[in-house]
Amino acid sequence: MTVLWWQTGLIYQIYLRSFQDTNGDGIGDLKGIERRLDYLTSLGVDAIWISPMYPSPMADFGYDVADYCGVDSRYGALADFDELLDQAHARGLKVLLDFVPNHTSDRHPWFAESRSSRDNPKRDWYIWRDPAPDGGPPNNWISDFGGSAWEWDEATGQYYYHAFLKEQADLNWRNPAVQATMYDVMRFWFDRGVDGFRIDVLWHMVKAADFPDNPLNPDYQPAMGDMHRVLQLHSTDQPEVHGIAAEMRAIAESYAANGLGERVLIGEIYLPVERLMPYYGRERAGVHLPFNFQLIDAPWKARSLAKLIADYESALPPGGWPNWVLGNHDRPRVATKRGQAQARVAAMLLLTLRGTPTLYYGDELGLSDVAIPLAQVQDPRELREPGLGLGRDPVRTPMPWERSENAGFTTGKPWLPLNADWSTRNVEQMAEEPHSILTLYRQLLAMRRTHPALSVGDFALLDAEGDVLAYERRHGGERLIVALNLGRQPQRLQLPDWSDWRPLLSTLADAAPAVNGALLLSGNEGVILKPH
Ligand code: NOJ
User: Fold this and answer.
1) For residues 280 and 318, what is the distance between their CA atoms, to the nearest angstrom?
2) Please, which residues have CB within 8 angstroms of residue 345's CB and are 6 or more apart in sequence?
3) Which residues contact 318 (CB under 8 A, 6 or more apart)?
4) Is the Cβ–Cβ distance between 18 and 28 less than 8 Å?
5) What tens digit of pLDDT does each residue of 267-317 get?
6) Which atom of ligand 1 is nearest to the CA of 163?
7) For the whole prediction, is pTM greater than 0.85?
8) Can 200 be counted among the known catalytic residues?
9) 202 alpha carbon to ligand 1 midpoint, in Å?
10) How far apart are the first and last CA of the chain?
């Protein structure tokens, strides 16, 4: 079996606004990423995914795109991107962009045309509907950011649909001209040398053609946020989306077929496993990696995690490559959810499961969610439904690099506050500490390279009890065991008796050796073992 870079490699997610500022305006930029490329290669990552850098009014911080083929001047210029791409490639790093095909900014020229009159040729590029008989919205669909998903347009007497903010109008992907134009956008970046895309809200892209009401959610509680009042049965995950994913895949494959390198497509999809799997494709291949977000919210219990992993593995279609995610720019950070001690165990889990791992910037430092004072809240999600804990600013704070002012992120005023412990929780400091979580991430990534069993090896759960999650990874002649204690109490694990086992790496300072075929794990300890 040929193993491809996106199967063995780790993808590192960069939230561009928060990574590294170079011009003192308090937000990150492309030159900032370039400045930190050596950090990324020394950490051992293989690919970076950059959150949207396109010209944008920033109503949703770049997920409201006003020009798909440009760079926002706050982040730099197209030439800076080309330079970054060259510099990354020179170091063997792949670069993925964030493609936002479901919706454009309401300031995109296409939308301006579309809303200008009912008979404008671009009218049908977006989703326009007449009011309901009572003059209200056409149906009960709710925006993911709360409130009706329909916005009234006085001038033309119709509503337009927006799954997110009213400043993010949904494109009509049933329109062939929209499809053709957006496929050309992909080619524009692929031709420049981009190695792949993370595709924003892929499962939202096609809506039921007749726009029926969504069913009410019987389990709705106000604390969940307004969007959960209904189940998104008709507004998302329609069968036609798979044809679009297949077209995108065919475009990506055409580059490899012409000897221009393997390109990868990763779909952002929040769906239960059985509805996630079809995004790998059926008759025609879909995206390479439908994001698997299960670890973010799963109960942190050994037995249920073991079942989750086994169920996911067995649900994969033939040839479907797994992937795992612990955090991203929309969800609480792993160190906040699981605590500092378990964040280390989670790191070992992420980097030893079978499949492509994605690492969210700052998680390698054990960065926690940062409390944002009310006056500094930026995220429209929080501003629209305050106080429910749905805001995403806390997980988008600046990367702390150094012990100097503003942790080396900016010479200006950071757009969001830094983590309060930045003077010790920063790259410079933690790189020197032999037992920091940063050092652990480095060790784990190095180990994945020297032991392919950890990245591409077969996976098998081992019998374990209590808080222990244990599995074997096997590749060629090599067999490794990973044993993770998800609890605070010491635990014992009986090891397979065909060998004596010795620890390769522990999440704690030193691992105890196995004695009489049994491993004694300290509380919050994870260990990788190899046969003697
Ligand atoms: C998903 C992105 O991850 C999120 O940050 C954004 O707000 C929505 N899509 C809308 O584009």
Assistant:
1) 10
2) 338, 484, 485, 486, 507, 524, 525, 526
3) none
4) yes
5) 999 999 999 999 999 899 999 999 999 999 999 999 999 999 999 999 999
6) 10
7) yes
8) yes
9) 11
10) 28
